[in-house]
Amino acid sequence: MTPRKTSFDVLGQLGALRRYALSLVRSPDEAEDLVHDALVRAYEKQSTFHSGGNLRSWLMSILHNAHIDRIRRGRSRLARETAAAELAPEAMAAPQDLSVRLKQLEGAFFALPEDQRAALHLVAIEDLSYQEAADALGIPVGTLMSRVSRARARLRAFEDETRRGASATPHLKLVGGSSDDNG
After folding, report:
1. 11-87 has which fold?
2. Whether domain 95-168 has CATH 1.10.10.10
3. Is pLDDT of 48 > 50?
4. Which of 17, 98, 137, 106 has its CA nearest to residue 65?
5. Against a cut of 0.70, is the pTM above it?
6. Residues spanned by CATH 1.10.1740.10 within the chain?
7. Is 40 left (phi over 0), alpha (psi -120 to 50) or beta?
8. Please, where are the H alpha helices in the chain?
9. Domain with CATH 1.10.10.10 in the chain
10. pLDDT digits (tens, 9 = 90+) for 96-120
């Protein structure tokens, strides 16, 4: 007579595993995920199950350990996210606003007369001295300084106009009624 090997019938234990998982996590979806994780581990570690052992308690142990691992993973993730949140700025400006603003400023810059735009570009963007910029354009330094001054004044006027236009436009608009309505 040959010794009979205990069957590895985990499917017969699904009901008990689901009930235990549900009591641990209190969510049917999470319980199913937990049972799935435990069954995967059980099949991976099937060789460690001792024949003649209690399959139910072995599976419950694996399920419990999988649950503990999930809790630890969640706490670790929360700690990392909290640490990252402390390092990150509390609020960031929307990149769309910056893109729009840069496009407006670019338009204002290119709307400058060519001689002013060239003078301002060499001094402000290329970081040339007034003398170097004047030499590059073949004009006297005084003329260059005058062009840069007029270009900056036009850009300042554009900025002032933009600010006035933004403050005159309400940020919220009431739709379907008047602001006098109370209800």
Report:
1. Rna Polymerase Sigma Factor; Chain: A (1.10.1740)
2. yes
3. yes
4. 17
5. no
6. 11-87
7. alpha
8. 14-25, 28-44, 55-87, 95-110, 114-120, 130-137, 141-168
9. 95-168
10. 877 888 888 889 999 999 999 999 9
